Amino acid sequence: MLRIERQDERDDRNTLMIYRIMYNTNSMNADTDYIEMAQLLGDAALPGEAQAVLEKAMSSGVIKDEHKERTTRLLNSLKARADTDRKGLASFDAEAAKNPGGELAVKLGEVYYGFGDYQKSVDSISAGLQKGQIKHLDEAYVYLGLAEVQLKNFAEAKRTFANLRIVPNISPRILKLWSLYAETVGR
Q1: HSE (side-chain half, CA atoms, 13 Å) at 21
Q2: Residues 54 and 19 in one domain
């Protein structure tokens, strides 16, 4: 079902949402899915998460020989960008804390998620949601829910994913997929 939804999707943000579900349910089996997801994450200024996606693909042996050179080049580029992001986290954190709107704090939480720092991800996104003025509320709730899943706070993750219902203009297909995902959390 996820593969069919992904093929029918034309919006990059929604495609990335579908890839996130596929990735978190271990439904990815094509190397091109990992590569496209990493490229979309890179385009979304999330090179740390993109690096983690490609490293998982490379270590699992899913990358076909004909794509290894290209994937290695992409991974090296993402590593360099992620290292730059990692070095700038302290200043990004300070800037997000001072900003009256929540957008920067949510973005910081997404970056922390990509680096595997799930508690800081939850803290940053929660602070951003409290401030308000979030451009992509759907992404904020998705990252917050995913971080809560990683922290094994399943009840809170389910509540967070349920908040997607109040997001204006969310794709009904994307909402349905995340709702189905939320039903599997903690099982």
Answers
A1: 24
A2: yes
Average pLDDT of the segment spanning 129-156: 95
The identity of residue 86, as a single letter, is R
Mean pLDDT computed over every residue of the chain: 91
- Kindly tell me if the per-residue pLDDT of 8 is higher than 90: no
Check which CATH number belongs to the domain holding 101 and give it. Answer: 1.25.40.10
Predicted model pTM = 0.88
Condensed to tens digits (0 to 9), the pLDDT of residues 59-75 reads 999 999 999 999 999 99
Where a domain ends, among 64, 87, 110?
Answer: 87
∠ CA 161-169-126, nearest 5°, is 40
Are 48 and 114 contacting, i.e. CB atoms less than 8 angstroms apart?
A: yes
- Cβ contacts of 48 within 8 Å, gap of 6 or more: 82, 85, 86, 111, 114, 115
Last residue of a domain, one of 66, 87, 108: 87
**Number of domains, the chain:** 2
Range of the structural domain that residue 3 is part of: 1-87
pLDDT at 9 over 90: no
Reply yes or no on whether the pLDDT at 85 is more than 80.
yes
Residues 66 and 7 reside in one and the same domain: yes
